[in-house]
Amino acid sequence: MTRRNFHVAVIGGGIGGLCLAQRLRKANISVSVYERDEAATIRAQGYRIHIDPQGSRALHESLPEHLWNTFEASCGVFHDGFTVITDQLCERQRRPLHAAATGVIERHRSVNRVILRAVLQTGLEDILHCGKRFLRYEEDPSGPVVAHFQDGSCAVADILVAADGVHSNVRKQYLPDAEPTDTGVIGIRGKVLLTAEVSALAPSQLVEGPVMITPPEPCSLFMVMWKQLPRVESAVPSLQLEKLSGVNEDYLILAMGGRPAYFAIPTDTTSVNKALLKEVLRRTVSGWHSDLRRLVEMIDDDEISLNKFYSSPNVAAWKPTQITLLGDAIHSMTPYRGIGGNIALRDAALLGLRLEEARRGGKSVIAAITEYEAAMHRYGFAAVQDSLRAMEQFTKKPAESAR
Fold first, then answer.
1. Strand 211-213's sheet: what is its strand order?
2. Chain-centre distance for alpha carbon 363
């Protein structure tokens, strides 16, 4: 079989786009990544992320051995319990959050997002182009795709991959009917450094895993700890993480979810500042247990952020071309199942595998993309619906008798 050479342009340098780039490089496929941020480390990366067995498998398949070892060494403490409690700290339900996974590779992990992105960027410095805000593409069915950027530059590729997130400009042009919808639910998130005082105030169930607090009102508060393992220090020098802020901190994450009308803030959240968000949190927990109220007060105003939750429609399968999509660019989902990042990693590993098969001459590029999209459509949109159901469960007002 004749090897085929082609070049892939990835629009978006989040974890999905970077994972794909790593997988393609591993297969000796030419690839470039175009990221809108002016620098690779400029974006606020959020906090701890749960990597499940499918995400772990995707990373293992995509990363070279030394980076996989670095990733594994940098993971933090992971506990798989999940507890639902009331706003007065009464336990409602306790169970494992996920099915047991004890494999060496395919298991659950907890990692700092800053560390994960640093791992994924390593070795890609020569092909990661920052400050490239995608505007549009031109497609020639018999030739390359040309991507145009806001700075007037362009990129020519045989395959264009949209990995540019929920507001993907590639998707807007390629699949306008696949635009995600605003669920009407928002998340107000903050963190508190994990001092001895904070540990004493936090619900005791947090030592076994995440906790969801469900008051009688139509909102919920998700809490989870990020704690590093001692061995993480061995991974820090190789990634030069001392240049990044917050990577050596243990902390408690608090994420309040609900609808703007309940929180008494404008539906157009662009005018909502951090001080107002802090006041919303304070007002929402005013009748809750005193320990929870004190934890909310400890949140630094600068650490508070607001996110709208979007959910993608289950669009019908489209005709595959030399343009394809992964992650939130095609199947954006609410955070209530905590699987969006893992699905993006699964996309990246699968697309990389199919393109490697095409490079080896076993199939055409279009056949490879067809196979990838058929599988991605099935598992990706199933995850969207699962996440949407979970959001509805935790933002509806429970029956008074359940308290």
1. 91-96, 81-85, 211-213, 219-226, 251-258, 181-193, 305-311
2. 31
> Coil, helix or strand for 363?
coil
CATH number of the domain where residue 296 is located: 3.30.9.60
Asked whether residue 224 falls in the same domain as residue 285, the answer is yes
Structure tokens at 335: 């955070």
Only one residue has tokens 């991959």, namely 161
pLDDT digits (tens, 9 = 90+) for 79-116: 878 999 999 999 999 877 666 556 789 888 989 888 89
Look up the domain containing 319 and give its range.
1-43+50-75+115-180+312-398
Please state the length of the chain: 403
For 167-180, what is each residue's pLDDT tens digit?
999 999 999 999 99
Measure the CA–CA gap between 381 and 274, rounded to whole angstroms.
Answer: 33
Residues 70 and 164 both lie in one domain: yes
pLDDT tens-digit readout, 35-84: 999 876 655 555 788 999 999 999 999 999 999 998 988 888 888 789 99
Nearest Cα to 380, choosing from 319, 318, 313?
313
Q: Rounded to whole angstroms, what are the CA distances from 5 to 28, 99, 318, 355, 358?
A: 9, 41, 26, 10, 9
